[in-house]
Amino acid sequence: MTKTVHTCGESKTLGDAVKTMLDKNIGILPVVNESEKLVGVITESHFVGNEKSVPHSFRDLRSLFGETFHLKKIEDVYKSVRNKKISEVMTRDPLSVSPDASLINVVELMNLKNIKRLPVVDGDSIVGVITRRDLIRAFNIVNS
């Protein structure tokens, strides 16, 4: 588990989040409210977008930060969402684990939900993040 956790307030902008993620070289930015309670996350995956099914259509629409970009350039979407509030684009109520979660529970959850990073929450406080890199470290410790 990585214990140094960089967080962002939900009133900050997506541009603020990007700056923090790049400056700190992190792939997940937990979003906290005024009480420092985890309320969401922004991850590298948010910048890839996702597909949304359109009923009775042969095509899915690509969406990025709530903006469809079927006929737009991704660069234009990035520019248009820079000042959006984190609270508008974050994943709300993210999956998390407690500090006493077993390695098998963490691995199973990450596999089942196809996620790369998990916030570690003790009560209402975020105390760490488990990443796939941490699983590699665990492998190394077990085999030392």
Secondary structure elements and pairings:
Elements: E1 8-9, H1 14-24, E2 28-32, E3 38-43, E4 50-53, E5 60-64, E6 67-68, H2 74-81, H3 86-89, E7 91-92, H4 103-113, E8 117-122, E9 125-131, H5 132-142
Parallel strand pairs: 1-2
Antiparallel strand pairs: 2-3, 3-7, 4-5, 5-6, 8-9
Plain-language structure description:
The chain is an alpha+beta fold and 144 residues long. The chain has one domain: Roll (CBS-domain). It has 5 helices and 9 strands, in the order βαβββββααβαββα. It has helices at residues 14-24, 74-81, 86-89, 103-113, 132-142, and strands spanning 8-9, 28-32, 38-43, 50-53, 60-64, 67-68, 91-92, 117-122, 125-131. Strands 1-2-3-7 form a 4-stranded mixed sheet. β1, α1 (14-24) and β2 form a beta-alpha-beta unit. The mean pLDDT is 86.
Keywords:
single chain; alpha+beta; three-stranded antiparallel β-sheet; CBS-domain; globular
**Unreliable sequence segments:** none
Q: State the CATH architecture.
A: Roll
| Relative strand content | 25-35%
The CATH topology is CBS-domain
Instruction: Return the average pLDDT rounded to an integer.
Output: 86
Question: What is the helical fraction, as a range of percent?
Answer: 25-40%
CATH class: Alpha Beta
Strand order of the largest sheet: 1-2-3-7
* Count of domain modules: 1
Number-wise, the strands total: 9
